[in-house]
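Subject: complex prediction, re-run

Hi both,

The earlier run crashed halfway through, so I resubmitted it with identical inputs.
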Amino acid sequence: MRRVGEAAFSKVEKINSELFSLTYGAIVTQLLKDYEEVDATNTQLEKMGYNIGVRLIDEFLAKAQVGNCGNFGETAEVIAKVGFKMFLGITAEVVGVSEKEFSLQLPENPLAEFVELPEQYGSLAYNNMLCGVLRGALEMVQMRVECSLTKDALWGDEVTEIRVVLKEMMEEEYVDDD
Amino acid sequence: MSALSQGRHQVAESTFSFLHMELVQMALGPNSATPTTSQLQLASRKIEAIGFQVGQRLVERYTKDRPRFTDTLEIIKFICKDFWVEVYRKQIDKLQTNNRGVYMLQDNSHPTLARCSAPTATSATTAKQMAALHIKFPSGLIRGALSGLGVIASVSATIESELPRCQFTIKITAPSAPPPA
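This time it finished cleanly. Structure:
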């Protein structure tokens, strides 16, 4: 799986991650200004991530060349080793896999490269956009999930960790064109 | 040290494009399918301000190991070449100046616009307005980078009739002060 991820990453156009992380930081700052509170900012970051996930899955399926996943654990591996690699250039570790849930641990995180949370924003889920991206992308492949940031290096944790819980496998609906 | 902390790390260009699209949406706010003039103005100010912050910080990182610039033209050239390559992997295609503090930078295929749809007869206004918003980010980047190097200027962007060509006009209001003797 790791090799598939590296192959996919080698094929895409790349940019310096500084531009990306600084822009993300400026967006979070702007949201804090606009919404004036941490909870609403967390929600908004997740929503923006969702919008991204819904679009990003197309590029993923087109370029990553992965087959169908047999079970949820396999889905976790594909996200961690191919998805994260292809878009962010990092790989995640999968922990705590079961039929219905798994967690992804990020030892490095390009989003939060230059970040320290000031005290009054201690509960800011700075990386919440990642949760939204996963929810949006998985929904497009018929998996309704809930994602939450359970650990964050910015909160003083050793790693950043996202827990993904499978709520429902959605039925594919076919609609006739005419 | 990891590649990340050394600043050599890379992410996919598409990841940034996705983020940039959301930035434009965020600036427009909810209910923005047919934005009003005031919504558009507010949005373009927000996007430009974000570009400015990013430009200021990026230029600090890109110039920390190089000798001090001697004049404004050298700074402008640096933006057209090194800075633009770092950010967009291409140089500005054409630089013109009136030698009195106005510089015109032409980008024949600007990456931010490459994914915008061309205006059609039915959507000409909206497509143009949206393209004008997208171009605010690079325009802010330039103003921020200049400011980081001590040059105070105003930057405006115009979109040529055929996307993705665009032009940035820099008007210097206060040139960088010469280094103290």
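Chain B is about 50% helix and 15% strand.

- K.
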